[in-house]
Design goal:
Radius of gyration: 19 Å
Strand order of the largest sheet: 1-2
Number of helices: 7
Oligomer: single chain
Shape: globular
Distance between the termini: 35 Å
Largest sheet: 2 strands, antiparallel
Strand content: under 5%
């Protein structure tokens, strides 16, 4: 996966034809409850144990900063803070925090699929490229929030134009498939 911001955002943006921010409504939460390893006290950070959640938060933060340094650095405290707060909740409430997290995940994923099916009439991006969808969808939503406040208007303009072109190609392809009597490559 290349670190080309516009190419990566085009992938996610073209999957959200109506730009309904389903991720923003359902929440992109990250699982942070996993096995952890004890580090010497001088090397450990409170509520950021060496576990899968902290590692995932670090990967997301690093990827976002490499992809778009300013926007990535702006979201980094939210990601790392979320991982730390999740670890705090787990240490304070134990399995109850995990049950709530699982419930929120289930409701969020249901909202994703229902939202994409009802508002856009198609499957979410994760069915096309799982890795890109998981890594880029939260950052795409973050950039949409920043675009709303005037961040990099030239990038927003180029992205909007590219997304419109990609969606037009998709619609033309779907129209051609209907005319040929096929749907998703299958003959009716």
């Amino acid at each position: 996966m290349a670190l080309n911001l516009e190419k990566q955002l085009l992938f996610v943006g073209s999957k959200s034809m109506r730009r309904v921010k389903i991720q923003l409504l359902s929440g992109d939460s990250m699982g942070t409850n996993s096995l952890h390893f004890e580090l010497p006290s001088g090397l450990s950070i409170p509520y950021l144990p060496l576990n899968l959640g902290t590692a995932a938060a670090t990967v997301y933060t690093t990827f976002y900063i490499l992809l778009e340094p300013v926007a990535g650095a702006m979201i980094a405290p939210f990601i790392m803070g979320g991982a730390a707060y999740s670890s705090h909740l787990t240490s304070k409430y134990g399995a109850t925090a995990n049950y709530w997290a699982i419930g929120i995940q289930i409701v969020s994923w249901a909202a994703q699929f229902i939202g994409h099916g009802v508002f856009e009439g198609r499957a979410p991006a994760l069915l096309d490229n799982l890795l890109q969808a998981f890594l880029l969808a939260p950052f795409f939503v973050w950039l949409e929030v920043l675009f709303f406040f005037g961040y990099r208007p030239e990038l927003k303009s180029r992205l909007d134009k590219s997304v419109e072109q990609e969606v037009a190609k998709l619609k033309a392809s779907q129209k051609k498939e209907k005319a040929n009597g096929t749907t998703n490559g299958f003959t009716r």
